[in-house]
Amino acid sequence: MAIPIYRTAVPFLLVMLISVSCKEHLGSPYVQTLLRIKELLNSPPYLSSWKTGMDFCNSEPTATLTVVCYDKTITQLHIVGDFGAPRFPMNFSIESFVGTLVRLPSLKVLTLVSLGLWGPLPSKFMRLSSLEILNLTSNFFEGQIPPTIASLQHLQTLILDSNNFTGRLPDSLGSLSALAVLNLRNNSLYGSLPHSLGDLEALRVLVLSSNNFSGDVPDLSSLTNLQVLNLENNALGPRFPIVGQKVERIVLRNNRFSFSIPEKVQTYNQLKFFDISLNRFVGPFPVSMFSLPSIAYLNIAENKLTGMLSESLPCNDDLYYVNFTANLLTGKLPRCLLSGSSKRVVLYAENCLATGDENQQPISFCKNEALAVGILPHSNKQKQASKVILALSICGGVTVGVILVSAFYLIVKNFLAKRAAQKSQPRLSEDNASTAYTSKILKDARYITQAMKIGGLGLPSYRTFSLEELEEATNNFHSSTLIGEGSRGQMYRGQLRDGSYVAIRCPKLRRNHTTQHFMPHIEFISKLRHQHLVSALGHCFEYHLDDSSVSRVFLVFAYVQNGTLRSWTSERRRQKLSWAQRIAAATGVAKGIQFLHTGIVPGIFANNIKITDVLLDQNLVAKISGYNLPLLSDNMEKYSLQNFFRGSKELKKARAKHQDKLDIYDFGVILLELITGKPINSRNEEDAVKDEMNASITSDDSSRRSLVDRAVRNTCSGESARTMIGICCRCLLKDPAERPSIEDVVWNLQFAAQVQDASQSSDGSPISPLQSSRMKPIITK
Ligand SMILES: *[C@@H]1O[C@H](CO)[C@@H](O)[C@H](O)[C@H]1NC(C)=O
Ligand SMILES: *[C@@H]1O[C@H](CO)[C@@H](O)[C@H](O)[C@H]1NC(C)=O
Ligand SMILES: *[C@@H]1O[C@H](CO)[C@@H](O)[C@H](O)[C@H]1NC(C)=O
Ligand SMILES: *[C@@H]1O[C@H](CO)[C@@H](O)[C@H](O)[C@H]1NC(C)=O
Ligand SMILES: *[C@@H]1O[C@H](CO)[C@@H](O)[C@H](O)[C@H]1NC(C)=O
Ligand SMILES: *[C@@H]1O[C@H](CO)[C@@H](O)[C@H](O)[C@H]1NC(C)=O
């Protein structure tokens, strides 16, 4: 038996304190940099908490001010000033400000919003080459967006909304291969859009609204992940933009589009929001748009669209806003628009509809107007001359004058010439809008969630504990405090002097080692701090007297007291979680897994997480316990210090071998239980429920609902049930490669929460584009 010699181990502890506690004060250069930034911003009130000697890394993050550190460097800086902050006075120098900022070269996320910064973006700025998210909304930056911005190769999100940037968009933007979000709303940019935009294959969100862009939108059909296209308030046109099949939101409002709506829009099965109002679109309005499977908002007001509506047209139940005011539509209003939800807004004045009310034009008005504009769209759309002739003859009954014919001839000729000029443009392929499993689609798209980065909130800093402290907390490791024992060691529950409870793990050590041997592991464990993990608070070593080798290691974790997730969903012991709480718990678990995979290097995979390993705290926040602790794994070499530098390669390798997908499967099993409320203890039970779920995906709402736990069945929204069941089934796919990535899982869950939330508050307001890109994955139907 080893004899504790902790009293003589002070030198060791000191060494450890210095080398281990990662969350201690940053080296002073960073402190000086931050204080200098404060000074350059004229010490504004929102930075009053920044003081000399302050521990920036452990400061409480707020909505307006956050500093996040990782491994002794600053990786995130968020400063949000007062809304509508005025421009800094003339003595402000953006050069010195940025010159100071680049002394934080590890910055990955930078938010400088409403600070009054002005001047051109200095080229020095590009030294922040680790940047992944940049948000400079609401400042007074001016001049061109520098072409050198392309050197920020890791950039995933670029938001320069509401500044005074001017000039053309640099062509080099197209080489930002990781870019997923590009928001340049409300600047003074002009000119045609560079063709290289079509190379941004990772792009999900493109917002260029409220600028002065002109000309045709480049071909965006290879942006297969594009979900949001917002070009509102520009001078773009005349052709309708070509976008990929996954688009959810198209906003072309108030531009100069004047050709017809391509037939392809009828295959956009994920399109929810369509606003092409205030343009000069001509030609037939594709009435099947009313019944697109996802459509909820349809605004084609103030164009010159023609077509005959009929009472029997079908429309999607989710459609809550339809505006086709001031077009050239004839026929009768579809009955389905008028029945259904009373909240639905349907606006249709100034057409030639047979409604009987006076705000409609006579039919002849629409016929004449249509004739004036009605030929061009066909020339644009049709590939064969025969169809053009057909279109002409459809205008029947009216003699098409010689002038019209020759004008038409000129237009067609012009069009063909233009077309020849752009011969190298790829043709859009009319792939059928298959909404089969979308795991592949989302697999490659990445997004760093803020939550993941601001992971370890609200925990005390990691520290070393003394053995006396732990003995006191556990009453000398009294058997009554033992809460678990297994082949890997014991676990005790203790109460510290400050009253807080901790769980103390005492892993079995196979051999004696020196403290040096354990250092990398301890350093690694000290980083395992996340809102959704049962996090490490510290450790303690006990030594052998004779050779000072380590005889025991104690790892101290937060104690989570509110029971396992199972006890809240599938056991009768207590009140059950509501549907929304279940989604929140699942999201927590997914985020915890995401952190284990990507939030630390090397990532921790194959954690074999069970629903009984998920604990809930007093606020019902889910926390994963019993994950794969490195100190306990036999494969210790992996955690040697050298390997820390190979983290991202490790992650790639793990992903290539689908190691990450093992946890995805286990997560799917947890979801099964969460959804159905039935404890799943065997493979057979698992398979049976899984089969039912798979069958229900293609089935109707009520049969899906019947799978949901009776206790919450009546409060869950159909859409959120569908999303949860869909993602659950995908997690449980046999082929690991087919299972979704953890990022997809998180998105889907957040979407489920969002639709559930919307259904509870019955608030049908449209979601902002940015949010929608983050929250809304593509849902399998
Ligand atoms: C700039 O001018 C303001 C007053 O207009 C002053 O308070 C501030 O200290 C000056 N800043 C610098 C960096 O000189
Ligand atoms: C950028 O900043 C604005 C203003 O604070 C905020 O609304 C927006 O969510 C931010 N975007 C991101 C991606 O952080
Ligand atoms: C657009 O930017 C200007 C400053 O450039 C700002 O005053 C205005 O509020 C912004 N408008 C919107 C709608 O964001
Ligand atoms: C934007 O820049 C133009 C010159 O490019 C300038 O005339 C205008 O005043 C600026 N607007 C703001 C709000 O700073
Ligand atoms: C937009 O650009 C056009 C030329 O392309 C110009 O005539 C017009 O004045 C510009 N509008 C604004 C608001 O800058
Ligand atoms: C929709 O219709 C209403 C009522 O006719 C009209 O006032 C409004 O401007 C229209 N909306 C748009 C976006 O054009």
From TrEMBL:
Subcellular locations according to the entry:
Membrane
- Pfam families in UniProt: LRR_14, PK_Tyr_Ser-Thr
Residue ranges under compositional bias (Polar residues)?
757-774
Q: Where are the transmembrane segments?
A: 388-412
From which residue to which does the signal peptide run? 1-22
- In residue numbers, the region (Disordered) covers 757-781
Any one GO cellular component localisation term in the record: membrane
Residue ranges constituting the Protein kinase domain according to the UniProt record? 477-751
Q: Which domain of life is it from?
A: Eukaryota
Q: How does this protein sit in the membrane? A: Single-pass type I membrane protein
SUPFAM superfamilies in alphabetical order: L domain-like, Protein kinase-like (PK-like)
Q: Name one GO molecular function term.
A: protein kinase activity
Q: Does the keyword Aminoacyl-tRNA synthetase apply?
A: no
Keywords for this protein = Glycoprotein, Leucine-rich repeat, Membrane, Receptor, Repeat, Signal, Transmembrane, Transmembrane helix
Name it: Protein kinase domain-containing protein
What is the species listed in this Swiss-Prot or TrEMBL entry?
A: Salvia splendens (Scarlet sage)
